[in-house]
Write a structure and sequence with these properties.
alpha+beta; 42% helix; 3-stranded mixed β-sheet
Length: 80
């Protein structure tokens, strides 16, 4: 199990976590604010609000695992 979906794209079984590209977009916003003169102490602390469940059925098949239908139904994306 991985935090970022990119590992599942590379062959991992499943991931549950925020989008790494979304996190980098937020970081870019903070860097922009700091470059414009904002104080780091004045910036808000943020955490991701959207998490994705991604399953890789090719990897599950290679490992001999059967993914329950309820888990497949809850997945945001299934890689076949």
């Amino acid at each position: 199990m991985f935090v970022f979906r990119e590992w599942v794209d590379a062959g991992g079984l499943l991931s549950y976590g925020p989008s790494i590209t979304g996190l980098f977009a937020r970081v870019a916003d903070f860097v922009d604010r700091l470059a414009r003169g904002a104080k780091a102490a004045d910036l808000p602390v943020e955490q991701p609000t959207r998490f994705q469940l991604v399953l890789n059925l090719k990897t599950a098949k290679a490992l001999g695992l059967e993914i329950p239908p309820t888990l497949l139904a809850r997945a945001d994306e299934v890689i076949e």
